[in-house]
């Protein structure tokens, strides 16, 4: 059977492989084209303090947070462009966004992949810009809050110094201007302590002021995204190669079954009894 059916077996293998390959080609053709744009962003130490190293994983989580992406969607008017509520548009942005950390650095790749190449580019850029503004605004507000609290502490401490200085003068007069009197010495030591605290608070206030003046942006766009020239999905070469390989690997199964059905049944067909010229009477 198989010696006679080799030609049929080979033909079916070829036809099956061609059918699977054609199916893969059609599926690849009808799949939506997706374009990708990439931003490269650097997370720098907070404010002017190099010791405040950024936690990259935490920054990436914040960048993909819903409030942040909702602002991105509204800034780009994606709800109007896509005819979706702003919340749904933000969810779609979340699904197309990929963040990749560059190991050993403070760099992160922000990738946006979408069927519209302009939307992909704009989203990859706007995500970085909006988050940079968030970080800058939050850090400057924190600096202002700390400066205000420290300024109030400085004023209170200045009043305490003045009160202690008056107390020293009163004790000094009560002890007949005797500098060596224990009460006078104790009062002067308390005054020195209050003045030292006042100086420390003033130095901290000055430090916060200098930090604000020397402030650097904590999120910097190193490489701007570009408009994609060609789609990254679907991968035509890979899909067609897999289709051809799948057809070639699976083709022996239908080929063997069909060959067996054709030649196997012929061999197993019953043979009619020979007629030797006898007739029944």
Your description of this structure?
The chain is of the alpha+beta class and 281 residues long. It contains nine helices and four strands, in the order αβααααββααβαα. Strands 2-3-1-4 form a four-stranded antiparallel β-sheet. α1 (2-30) packs antiparallel against α8, α3 packs across α6 and α6 packs antiparallel against α7.
- Poorly predicted ranges (pLDDT <50, ≥5 residues)? none
Order of helices and strands: HEHHHHEEHHEHH
Radius of gyration: 40 Å
Strand neighbour order, sheet with most strands: 2-3-1-4
- Distance from N terminus to C terminus (CA atoms, Å) equals 42 Å
Q: Averaging pLDDT over every residue, what do you get?
A: 82
Total helices: the number is 9
SS strand fraction: 5-15%
For the largest beta-sheet, the strand count, sense and barrel status come to: 4 strands, antiparallel
The residue fraction in helices comes out at 55-70%
């Amino acid at each position: 059977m198989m010696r006679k059916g080799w030609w049929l077996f080979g033909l079916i293998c070829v036809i099956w492989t061609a059918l699977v390959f054609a199916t893969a080609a059609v599926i690849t053709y009808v799949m939506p084209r997706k374009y990708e744009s990439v931003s490269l962003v650097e997370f720098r130490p907070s404010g002017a303090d190099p010791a405040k190293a950024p936690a990259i994983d935490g920054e990436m989580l914040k960048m993909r947070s819903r409030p942040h992406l909702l602002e991105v969607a509204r800034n780009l008017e994606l709800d109007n462009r896509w005819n979706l509520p702003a919340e749904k548009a933000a969810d779609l942005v979340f699904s197309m966004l990929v963040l990749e950390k560059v190991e050993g650095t403070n760099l992160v790749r922000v990738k946006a992949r979408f069927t519209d190449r302009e939307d992909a580019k704009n989203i990859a850029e706007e995500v970085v810009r909006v988050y940079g503004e968030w970080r800058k605004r939050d850090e400057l507000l924190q600096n202002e809050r700390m400066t205000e609290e420290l300024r109030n502490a400085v004023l209170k401490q200045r009043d305490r110094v003045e009160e202690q200085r008056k107390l020293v003068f009163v004790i000094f007069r009560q002890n007949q201007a005797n500098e060596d009197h224990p009460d006078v010495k104790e009062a002067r030591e308390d005054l020195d302590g209050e003045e030292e605290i006042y100086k420390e608070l003033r130095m901290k206030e000055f430090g916060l002021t200098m930090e604000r003046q020397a402030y650097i942006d904590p999120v910097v766009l190193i490489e701007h995204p570009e408009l994609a020239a060609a789609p990254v999905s679907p991968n035509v070469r890979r899909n067609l190669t897999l289709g051809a390989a799948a057809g070639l690997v699976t083709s022996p199964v239908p080929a063997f079954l069909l060959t067996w059905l054709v030649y196997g049944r012929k061999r197993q067909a019953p043979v009619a009894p020979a007629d030797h010229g006898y007739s029944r009477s």
